[in-house]
TrEMBL record:
Domain Amidohydrolase: 41-490
Pfam families: Amidohydro_3
One example GO MF annotation: hydrolase activity, acting on carbon-nitrogen (but not peptide) bonds
Domain of life: Bacteria
InterPro entries: Amidohydro_3, Metal-dep_hydrolase_composite, Metal_Hydrolase
Protein name (record): Amidohydrolase 3 domain-containing protein
Annotated source species: Serinibacter salmoneus
């Protein structure tokens, strides 16, 4: 890898333009004027913005790749309307065979209840599965129930673990086909300035070894081919933990042979993922106060079980990422962090008790949040968490207390778009309505820092994982595509001369 001098870069929070030198995957210099070295590539940014590359701290990358191949049922406002969307889709696509998979329904506020019979009538004899927008449930037709050996619960849905164990297998395809879908999704993510993701798929994380090695071993590489478009930090779920550790892997262990410019593998084992409770839309998020009509949600692990898992992760130098959407689940997660001394994050942290926010700060536990969820869950939260909206997505309170904050998308629950997350955190509205909980809005620089995980400006000595923008990153709208993305100084996306 050679040296590159980027001239005329604008930096967040600094006046004027700056030169930035990148060599051997590292930022070597930032100054108002740097003299080119002999043979050094020079790139004129012409006043474009240069920022650290963005990270998505919570992705289900395979399921995000699969969503592009599923039909959209998100507009449905009732079970009957969702079934009608299925009927129309089948009529318009008679050539489709195999399992028909739709995505995006949100049943929490529907006036009617889903049933297997509804799908059977909409698509007679067809295996149909509709995946909920929060990924925590599926609505199955009778042939689909038989194909995947599932049974619905009284809600008419297959929920939580019963659903999650088959979620990534719904769309079929060979491993090679699915790996190709993931690489396409990764390349698209690079166009938005993303340089890395934390992947929370429930599959064995060692799958990344095959996925990346196959991608890097391409012969007769086509024009425009680039190294794997993202760094990946992969989670391991409890079902795979002992097998992964028995293979000799520990925290930060490499998961493949695909090397970046500095000789470090692009995929590493990162964290233990524990799904401690459910989700808001399925009323399974575990809360201190009851839902309207009764019930507090539920726990997937009791405290002693959670502590045992986290201690095992600690032995293997793994951080712990504890999914906790309800406030009672978050409280239990903090008790487990206190008991074990483990490091890591509370994933989602959508509803917190006020007293638990300073506890998080004292423990050094990161809040890994998905701000775009507040756009989707605003009305549902008001309906299912009445009187608790001031504690929902308390982003500014977390920052004020000193809790480390990182952003993700939870794609495909929300799009793999860091600019949408930043916008949601800053505005707290996605439509013409006023901000929901305006006191919890973040400033632009704080939100951008949470999306990069490394601040808002490149720094000397840091990795040359960078994004180049034509627009001010503090004002970039959702859907922004960047002019260029580099990992270790190598282009993963380039849309500029």
């Amino acid at each position: 890898m050679g040296s590159m001098l980027m001239r005329g870069a604008r930096l967040v929070g600094r006046d004027g333009v700056w030169d930035v030198r990148v060599s051997r995957g590292v930022i070597r210099g930032i100054d108002a004027r740097i003299r080119p070295e002999r043979g050094e590539e020079t790139l004129d940014l012409a006043g474009r913005w240069l920022i650290p590359g963005l990270w998505d701290a919570h992705v289900h990358l395979m399921q995000w790749a699969q969503v592009a191949r599923r039909f959209d049922v998100s507009p449905a406002t009732s079970a009957a309307e969702a079934a009608e969307l299925v009927r129309r889709y089948v009529a318009q696509h008679p050539e489709r065979d195999g399992v028909l998979v739709g995505f995006g329904y949100r049943a929490a506020t529907w006036p009617d209840q889903p049933s297997t019979e509804m799908l059977d009538q909409a698509a007679p004899g067809r295996a149909v599965v509709l995946v909920s927008g929060d990924l925590h449930s599926g609505w199955f037709s009778t042939p689909a129930l038989h194909a995947f050996e599932r049974q619905p619960d009284p809600s008419g849905l297959v929920r939580e673990e019963d659903f999650l164990t088959v979620a990534s297998a719904l769309d079929g395809g060979s491993d090679l086909q699915r790996d190709a879908w993931v690489r396409e999704a990764a390349a698209e993510a690079a166009t938005r300035g993303l340089v890395g993701v934390v992947d929370f798929e429930s599959d064995d994380p060692r799958r990344w070894a095959t996925r990346m090695t196959a991608a890097e071993a391409v012969e007769d590489r086509p024009e425009g081919w680039a190294p794997y478009p993202l760094r990946v930090r992969a989670a391991v779920w409890p079902d795979h933990l002992e097998d992964v550790l028995a293979a000799g892997l520990r925290g930060r262990s490499p998961l493949g042979n695909a090397l970046d410019g500095r000789g470090h593998p692009m995929a590493r084992l990162a964290t233990l993922k524990v799904l401690s409770d459910g989700a808001l839309n399925t009323r399974t998020a575990y809360c201190h106060d009851p839902y309207p009509g009764g019930g507090f949600g539920g726990l997937n692990y009791q405290l002693a079980e959670l502590v045992e898992l986290m201690n095992r992760a600690l032995e293997a130098d793994l951080s712990c990422s504890i999914h906790a959407i309800g406030d009672a689940a978050a409280e239990q997660a903090l008790r487990a962090f206190e008991a074990t001394g483990a490091t890591g994050s509370i994933e989602h942290a959508q509803l917190l008790s006020w007293e638990d926010i300073p506890r998080m700060a004292a423990l050094g536990i990161t809040a890994s949040v998905q701000p775009a969820h507040l756009l989707d869950d605003r009305d549902v939260a008001d309906a299912l968490w009445p009187g608790r909206g001031d504690r929902a997505f308390p982003l500014a309170s977390l920052v004020a207390a000193g809790v480390p904050l990182i952003f993700g998308s939870d794609a495909p629950v929300s799009p793999l778009d860091p600019w949408l997350q930043i916008s949601a955190a800053v505005t707290r509205t996605g439509d013409e309505r006023a901000a929901w909980g305006p006191e919890q809005r973040l400033g632009g620089e704080v939100a951008l820092a949470a999306a990069t995980g490394r601040g808002v400006r490149p720094r000397v000595g840091g990795r040359a994982d960078l994004a180049i923008l034509d627009v001010d990153p503090l004002a970039a709208p959702p859907g922004t595509r960047v002019a260029g993305t580099l990992i270790a100084g190598e282009w993963t996306h380039r849309a500029m001369d």
